[in-house]
Amino acid sequence: MNKRKTAFLNWETFLLGILVMEFVVFGVKNSKFLMPRVLLASVNDFIAICFIALFVTFVMITGGIDIQAASIVGLTSIIIGVGWQDGGMNIWLAAALAVAAAAVCGALSGFFIAYCGVQAMVVTLGGSFLYAGFALLVSNFSATEAYQGISGFPDSFKVISKFKLFDVIPSQLLVFLVLIVIAYILLHKTKYGRSIFLVGINQEAAEYSGVNTRLVILSTYVLSAVSAALAGIMLTSYLGTAKSDLGANLTLNIITAVVLGGTLSTGGKGSVLGTALASLVIGILRFGLPLCFKVNTQYLDIPVGILLLVVVIGRAVVSRPGTLAFLHKLKRR
Amino acid sequence: MNYIKKLTKAREASSLFFLIFLFVIVGCINTSFLTASNIVACFNDSVVFTLLAVGMAFVIFIGEIDVSVGANLGFTASVVGSLLRDGHSLVFSFGAGILIGALIGLINGWGVAVLNIPSLIFTLGTNGVLRGLIYVYTDGAWVENLPAAFTAFASRPLAGGVTVYYSVSIAAIIVIHILLTRTKKGKYFIAVGDNAGGATLVGIPTGRTKIAAYVLCGVFAALASILYASRIGFITAIAGNGYEMKAIAACVIGGISLSGGLGSVIGASVGAVIMSSVSRILVFMGFSSDYDNTITGIMLITIVVLDALMQRHAAERIRRERLLARSSKMSEEKEGN
After folding, report:
1. Interface-testing mutation among A309, A313, A317, A318, with chain B (most B C-beta atoms within 10 A)
2. Which of A147, A209, B210, B297 could make an S-S bridge to A129, C-beta 3.0–4.6 Å?
3. Same structural domain for residues B302 and B279?
4. Domain residues for B220?
5. Across all residues in chain A, what is the average pLDDT?
6. pLDDT in tens, B28-41
């Protein structure tokens, strides 16, 4: 047990090492990268990945998967826009409505997965269609053309992404830190968190030991949907426009962050800190490559995809019996 | 009589009935939908999805998934299109495309079957890499100016307005269906998906079957990409975006169980027609095609949920029957004593 714990720690230190290496490589290549103003402004580009990946970790620990979160980002964004501009709502009421709508979406998918026993992949695949479709429908209620996006939000709303602590640390990072703490306590320090792991390891055993496994599974999808809603609010506030296709193409990054963070895609293992570090690794990669190596932003799916493949292949190769025996032999020598 | 009973019980039959039902309903609302030319067009337009869905069906048969087919289609279409544009021969361009598709399938199959990586995760990774490679290969520019003969061939009818592409595809699918249901090797796919452990025990090469399924899926994606290039006439950098989801949805609607081991390629092709007709149906019913995604999502979720509930119900009934039989046997024995 102790050995496993150190191995676990090692993975997170390893991620931290990669993160530091990224800083060094990008910093050496282009000193502009290390300017605090530039570096801290970059979080806007990938904060959505960080928020959502934290809670998709919960889903994946139960053995499920969530590929609908990206479409919920757009849905919340457009609900805020339409609710505020065309519904005449207070902006905060609109934001609260958006979070509630996201929670309902998550609960709906979670219900089908947990209580009807449909594979998580299919339901969230259907969900990604459905909620992206809902977002389009909602945008039809607006007087503004869909491609323009709804803008002109009040300053009090914009300030949630413009606020800086001590004039340096952007509010996004603060919210991210708060979310990490919440997720960490939920997953690693509470009974609820233990039951999430238990469900992922063996759902039947969990059921027999008195865990309401279905409710636990459902709740993880609600959590990931709510985190997607928070990401949607943050992005809408930062961009100043509400669009229905916000957050499209995030799926690959989210799943990569969770898997890179050490979560087993078959469930039962994972950590909040790992995911948090991994999402930063991906975010910095997406920020640094275009800035320092002139990589076209449209190519960025390649490094992220390769990263995902390398991690899963590496893990598969290491855990094969042949490789284990080989490593053992090396050690003996 | 027995044959008819078997036919109506088949899973693909229910999706065929659904297709007919859908067309009749839309026809009742807007009679101009039910003209011969329009219905033929529904089938003709589905040819790209049909090929994708049939390829996907192999992967789903074995109980896995492949979300890289959309990017595979986009990438191979770019390569084939640019080769044709630069004046290479049809055989060479098509051969290169099919080879690339097979190679992508081989990589996916290797990751899933040899390394035992969950298929969704692995193919999501290859999807990202391929999407990026399209930009690298084309520099984000459209592949245009394909030879006129190549694009014109897409609309050439064979008989009764049905295009050559669609009729050849359907003929091929029927042959594949017969091979899958009548030959020993064809049955491997379903057997592996139904019970991989059992299949291994009776001597079926499980790993090789899985790899074969992925290679076939890649080849079908490449074939679909050729037809895509021919039908559309130009290839953008986002060609095939989201097609993987529609191909999976087509398979599910066509009665293929995502847990593997159930369904047929005929079902997949029927599902593809339903999927690709959604936007046309919406237009005929006077809705904006903005509803396309919503309808697709609702159909997909409804069908899988119904399927899961029905399967659970059936399993429950069988269990109850078994218990009843056992308890009656026991009481009989008691009386005998």
Report:
1. A309
2. B297
3. no
4. 44-287
5. 81
6. 888 888 888 888 88
Question: E strand or H helix at B163, and its extent?
Answer: strand B162-163
Beta bridge partners of B159: B162
Flag if A127 and B135 touch (Cβ within 8 Å): no
Task: Tell me the average pLDDT across A216-227.
Answer: 91
Q: Cα–Cα distance between B27 and B118 in angstroms, integer?
A: 43
Residue bearing tokens 């950590």: A271
pLDDT band at B109 (very low <50, low <70, confident <90, very high): very high
Contact yes or no for B249/B182 (Cβ under 8 A)? no
DSSP helix, strand, coil percent of chain B (3-state; round to 5): 80, 0, 20
Chain-chain contact of B129 with A255 (C-beta, under 8 angstroms): no
pLDDT of amino acid A282: 87
The answer to whether B128 contacts A304, with C-beta atoms less than 8 Å apart, is yes
Buried b (16+ CB within 10 A) or exposed e, A25-41: ebbeebeebeeeeebee
Please count the other Cβ atoms lying within 10 Å of the Cβ belonging to residue A267.
Answer: 21
User: Is B19 domain-assigned?
Assistant: no
CA nearest neighbour of B98 among B124, B70, B131, B73: B73
Contact status, residue A125 vs residue B248, Cβ threshold 8 Å: yes
DSSP strand pairing (A164-165 vs B162-163)? unpaired
Q: Residue B89 — left, alpha, or beta (φ > 0 → left; ψ -120 to 50 → alpha)?
A: beta
Does any domain span residue B276? Answer: yes
Least CA distance to A314: which residue of chain B? Answer: B115
A164 beta partners: A170
Q: Is B296 within 8 Å of A133 when comparing Cβ atoms?
A: yes
Label the pairing between strands B157-159 and B162-163.
antiparallel
Residue B51, domain CATH: 1.10.3470
The more confidently predicted of residues B12 and A103 is: A103
What does the alpha-carbon distance between residue A154 and residue A85 come to, in Å, rounded to a whole number?
A: 11
Tokens of B85: 């544009």
pLDDT digits (tens, 9 = 90+) for B281-331: 888 877 777 777 788 788 888 888 887 887 788 788 888 888 888 888 777
